[in-house]
Fold:
Amino acid sequence: MTTAAPALLETVELETGPQPAWTVLWLHGLGDSGEGWAPVVPELLRQDWPSVRFVFPHAPVRPVTINNGVRMPAWYDIRDFQDLANRADAEGVEQSVAQVEALIAREAERGVPASRVILAGFSQGGAITLAAGLRRREPLAGLIALSTYLPLGERLIREAAPQASAQPVFMAHGSHDPVVPFQGGQLAAAGLRSLGFEVEWHTYPMAHQACGEEIEAVADWLGRRFAQA
Structure:
């Protein structure tokens, strides 16, 4: 029996020029939407970049246990806030990874192969970025994981595809983060490095948020990816 492909998520899209040669697929955090991160595009852009399509999907709306079951945009349910290894529900993670893969496949249909797709995410979106990235047998151009952790504990490390470690990774975390502990981000980076990933790590004196210096570092990292193609 074949499994039906997931319906494509609704997205916000911004193109920096005609016929984009690259795609940055950016996943928002819990309770947010694609519109929440779209304003970052002008802060990222550099004059020497090729044309880029930025795709900001909206997460499905689902009940979130730690928020008393209130329905909100979420990439997965959060059942245990304290235990990071068991915070994410596996079914929700798997569903979201499949939806992200469908968006990556659409980019290939639009002329941007996986080798020129960057997958990025903040918080919950960063967790899905890492979960999807670890499964990739056809490496993406890179992964950006901000203020996040590795969901499902050691399971993703055990199940990682051997080809996945070819993907360079940018990670950044606030040292005062009360939502995703700083140590959770460090553990995720260590787990990726144990598999052979090249991880560029940045720390900022902030809470669960982004800052201008961080966005500047992301832009520098993206520029290096584009220049290597």
